[in-house]
Design goal:
Blueprint (H helix, E strand, L loop, with lengths): L2 H4 E3 L2 H9 L3 E2 L5 E4 L7 E12 L6 E2 L5 E2 L2 E12 L4 E14 L4 E9 L11 E3 L8 E3 L6 H9 L4 H18 L4 E3 L4 E3 L3 E7 L4 E3 L3 E7 L8 E2 L4 E7 L4 E2 L4 E7 L4 E3 L3 E7 L4 E3 L2 E3 L2 E2 L4 E2 L5 E3 L1 E3 L3 E2 L4 E3 L11 E3 L4 E2 L4 E3 L2 E3 L4 E3 L1 E2 L12 E5 L2 E5 L7 H12 L19 H19 L7 E4 L2 E4 H27 L7 H8 L10 E4 L2 E4 H12 L6 H13 L1 H17 L8 H27 L16 H12 L6 H27 L1
Parallel strand pairs: 2-4, 3-4, 4-7, 7-8, 8-9, 8-12, 9-13, 9-14, 13-15, 14-16, 15-17, 16-18, 17-19, 18-20, 19-21, 20-22, 21-23, 22-24, 22-25, 23-26, 24-27, 25-28, 26-29, 28-31, 29-32, 30-33, 31-34, 32-35, 33-36, 35-37
Antiparallel strand pairs: 1-3, 5-6, 10-11, 37-38, 39-40, 41-42
Helix pairs in contact: 4-9, 6-7, 7-11, 7-12, 12-14
């Protein structure tokens, strides 16, 4: 049955009851009702324009167990369709131009209306990374971090970016309407001013001050919650996210599973899967998945981040007071800042780097991943690769998948959690060669080296070369062992056949598209398809990113084969069982050495100095007992236990493969 057939004209007797209940209308002929409509459920209501009313039978049971009868009380409605079992109570001004679906509850609100032709936040232009423009991203309901990455950072692919932006415009036009929607089972309570906002099913909005020009893309599996004191303008909020506690938002996209709370302030920024913002401020940032900032006085500005944790008082500067705030920063995945850290943009920080102190010179550490960047005597000191032996890095890698808050069956961002991947290992190759070059070009016995405004001590350089080599051995061995897992091999020919890559795709550079790791050539091929018209909509583009993500392991082996050949000087097609055993033995040593370093790093957290502040009113014995009660014993710590289990498993895995390969020998 069509929507038009669902409703009938209101009868004179129903009109009479409505008038008796204090209701009024300038033209009752424009009021339609569903069969079963009970006029007694409408009290003190002013109707105007075209009105459609459902049936009001089932009550609403709130979280305290109180039953509230469905119906409309003390409200003014203009050009509205009201579904069945809806509650609308105490509207101070009016509700206008809205389709309100079944089982919606709206209580104690001021003004809710759609004015003019609205796209409900879609196609809003957000100036990320560069405050003055030039990298603007047009947002839409299901913008992924990967699409945004290309739009913001691939300006050299002008035609591809233009076509993608046209796709967004087409989608936005299709979503535009003069009528807003409040999805079924939603609740809107104690809100002052709502204008041109689309609410998905099961949205919960309570105490918001202003919501203007936006979409709340809630769903039953993963509702969106908007809480007290919130002011949001020109926005999109995706499923599972929560914006509350007087947070201020202007021109922002908030992806799935995010939390922005405790007076957080953000403008012209993008937040993707599982980001968290509390207390602080964001301006023109690209917050890739798992960007988290917890503290007051923390400013993230004009940069791109992902898997990042910002310490209290962290700050960056994009302004040299010459041509305006035109500078930008890149912090690659997994980087952290300590309390009171500072970076001067433009700068680029390599993956999994820890920033300590204040750095007043521009620098690029992108080829030196897993490092510490420390301020010492007004110098920026780089300690290459040292984060590979930090138990904190491993803990982060373990916790990210566990902290995925997304419950929606459709996940917009395709997130690769791998700590070691062609993307990070390629940087280790670059870092190893860079450090070797620095050493070879300096006089023997040099105690300190300088690279791009940073100091590297001689001991740090030598250790960095070793750590990068360990990481390379670990990754290549992991890939090799995975490839041979479960294979019964009788001859070297069978071994070589199994090791041969299934495809040629995957060689060369790899990139991190804000969470999605893929070969650069495949991303370029995707953009070629966009330019050729083979990808014609934002939905098709989203599916292309799913394909890239799902193809990761097929392409990873092709890349690993290329690097094994370069590293060991033997084509994979010529490897014998003896060669593979040698690689596996190197792998086993690297894994165990690295795990032992992590084990010892974890032990520092249980050293005597870490017990300071425990056992406040007792001696050494009470201190130890108090520490054990609060922190637990070292060997029972979950991270420590995981490291020990990892050593055990990897030893067994290596020995099992070596035993199989010895059968060939």
């Amino acid at each position: 049955m069509s929507l038009k057939d669902d409703f009938r004209n209101i009868t004179p007797s129903e009109t009479s009851i409505l008038i008796t209940n204090g209701c009024s209308c300038d033209d009752w002929t424009r009021v339609k009702v569903k069969e079963g409509f009970d006029p007694a459920r409408c009290v003190n209501v002013i109707f105007s324009g075209d009105i459609r009313l459902g049936v009001f039978l089932e009550p609403f049971i709130d979280e305290s167990g109180i039953s509230i009868q469905s119906g409309i009380l003390n409200a003014r409605l203009h050009n509205c369709t009201i579904g069945s079992d809806v509650i609308i109570n105490n509207i101070g001004d009016y509700i206008a131009n809205y389709n309100i679906e079944d089982k919606v509850v709206i209580k104690n609100c001021g003004k809710i209306r759609t004015e003019g032709f609205s796209s409900f936040g879609n196609a809003t232009s957000v100036n990320v990374m560069n405050e003055t423009g030039g990298r603007a991203v047009k947002i839409w309901d299901r913008l992924s971090s990967h699409e945004a990455y290309i739009i913001a950072l691939y300006r050299h692919r002008k035609e591809a970016v233009r076509i993608i932006e046209k796709m967004v415009d087409d989608y936005s036009l299709a979503q535009s309407s003069i009528t807003g929607t409040i999805g079924h089972n939603s609740g809107i309570f104690n809100c002052s001013n709502i204008r041109n906002v689309k609410f998905g099913p099961f949205s919960h909005v309570e105490g918001a001050i202003t919501l203007n020009e936006g979409s709340i893309n809630s769903c039953e599996e993963d509702p969106v919650i908007i809480g007290p004191g919130v002011i949001m303008e020109h926005f999109i909020v995706c499923s599972g996210s929560k914006v509350t506690e007087s947070t201020l938002i202007d021109k922002c996209f908030i992806g799935q599973g995010c939390v922005l709370a405790k007076h957080y302030s953000a403008e012209n920024s993008l937040f993707f899967a599982n980001c968290g913002g509390y207390h602080g401020e964001a301006c023109s940032i690209f917050a890739g998945p798992y960007t988290v900032t917890h503290h007051k006085s923390t400013l993230l500005i004009a940069g791109i981040f992902s898997f990042m944790n910002a310490g209290s008082g962290s700050n960056q500067s994009n302004h040299m007071y010459k041509l305006g705030p035109i500078h930008q920063g890149i912090m690659e995945r997994g980087s952290k800042t300590t309390s009171d850290s500072y970076l001067l943009w433009p700068a680029r920080i390599g993956p999994y780097t820890l920033i300590m102190g204040r750095h007043y010179k521009n620098m690029d550490t992108s080829s030196l991943p897993f490092s510490y960047l420390i301020e010492s005597n007004d110098e920026s000191v780089l300690v290459p690769g040292i984060n590979l032996r930090s138990v904190g890095t491993i803990r982060d890698a373990q916790k990210w998948p566990l902290r995925d808050m997304r419950k929606d069956h459709f996940r917009i961002d395709q997130v690769n959690f791998n700590l070691l991947s062609p993307y990070t290992i390629l940087k280790m190759f670059e870092g190893r060669e860079l450090l070797k070059k620095l050493k070879s070009e300096s006089p023997p016995g040099t105690s300190a080296y300088y690279y791009d405004n940073m100091k590297i001590t001689g001991s740090s350089l030598d250790r960095g070369i070793g750590l990068y080599q360990t990481g390379i051995n670990k990754f290549l061995g992991n890939s090799l062992i995975k490839r041979l897992e479960g294979c019964e091999l009788k001859t070297n020919l069978e071994l070589q056949h199994r090791l041969a890559p299934d495809m040629s795709d995957g060689k060369g550079e790899w990139i991190d598209l804000a969470g999605l790791i893929a070969p650069e050539k495949e991303v370029s091929r995707l953009l070629d398809d966009v330019e050729a018209g083979m990808i014609a909509s934002v939905e098709e583009l989203a599916q292309s990113f799913v394909f890239l993500h799902n193809s990761y392991y097929k392409w990873e082996w092709t890349w690993a084969c290329q690097k094994i050949e370069e590293e060991y000087g033997i084509p994979v097609g010529n490897l014998t069982a003896g060669d593979v055993i040698g690689i596996v033995e190197k792998w086993e040593k690297s894994v165990i050495d690295l795990d032992n370093l992590l084990y010892e790093d974890a032990r520092k957290e249980f050293a005597l100095s870490s017990m300071t502040g425990f056992g406040i009113d007792g001696g050494a014995e009470v201190k130890k007992l108090d520490f054990d009660e609060v922190r637990g014993e070292f060997e029972s710590n979950s991270v420590v236990a995981a490291i020990k289990e990892h050593i055990k498993q990897k030893k067994a895995l290596g020995e099992e493969l070596i035993t199989r390969l010895k059968n060939i020998l």
